[in-house]
Hints:
The protein has 365 residues and is an alpha/beta fold. Helix content is 38%, strand content 9%. Helix 5 (141-161) packs parallel to helix 7.
Amino acid sequence: MASPRSPPFRAEHIGSLLRPDELVKHRYAVADQSATPESLVPIEQKAIRDVVALQQSCGIHSITNGEYSRHQFWGTFFETLNGMEEVNLREGGYLPEFEFMKTLVPKDQWKNIKITLASPSWYHFRYGPNRAYVKGVYANDDEYFADVAKAYQAELSILYEAGLRNAQVDDPNLAYFCSDAMLSGWKADPLNFQTADKQFAAYMKFYNACFERPADLHLGIHLCRGNYLNSQHFSEGAYDNIASIMFNTLNVSTFYLEYDTPRAGGFEPLKFLPRNKNVVLGVVTSKFPTLEDKKEMVERVYKAADFVAEGESTGTREEALKRLSVSPQCGFASHAEGNALGYEDMRKKLTLVRNIADEVWPGEP
């Protein structure tokens, strides 16, 4: 089976984009009650219109709202489940974002709109096994996972019925399983009742339950390594620890992988990529303004393709390139204030991504 295409497009981006100062300041004003929530709406909508136009001018087809309707990248999905005492289904938390985006592009482009979703393990990984919920509500993690999975299935169904065909999960947790520091800490923590390998396998099963969806809903996952104030990162380590299991087990079509610095390791784990899945190579950094050399980035894409081809007995670079795309390594503003670069720097980065794609895959979106 061939991997799906368009989406993902050859030139991609991860989702968040630098927010205008007016939007950031007004959202803080709403938070401290010096402004009303209603007064934020026209400011937010204008900013979204402008950032959609920016993406279009850069030749990006997988259009997002820049995550301008959120203060942080994860939004408020879990909060709208009525907390973690017990998950209660409700109207789609991401639906208003998608509905407004539909008003900004022609109907035949609705399928290109990308909505970014919070990681299913967002709270579980933060608080730890058997600690992400009030004691006594769930007997164990399996019960909790089953309830969260119902919420994700409902969310994806609501969005699909509204016309969504392109979704991406932003996951800052799975990449920690590449980190020797995290793995050592996990082993030393007496509250972790199973090994890190078993927890990772449990997450694969949990995520797959969350990701049940119609066949024509493209779903990808971005493995984030941290994208916080002043362009900080959190986790380091090559994908070798998890690549084979993740690529072959996780029910997503596309993996958005960070490859902008040596902390992510080399392209060797791409040998494990199945023929029916894609990788978006995050070779352009969204953290700092210095612009990468286009020729060097093109060569990196070819090098990655060679490793994909190596994993197949009859693979060629040309065949492998069909399953690859290029992007910035992460969003430009996972949090309100954004990374340590300017708006024009961001525009240049997106344009570079487009130019790299045009060199490697001429004539493809």
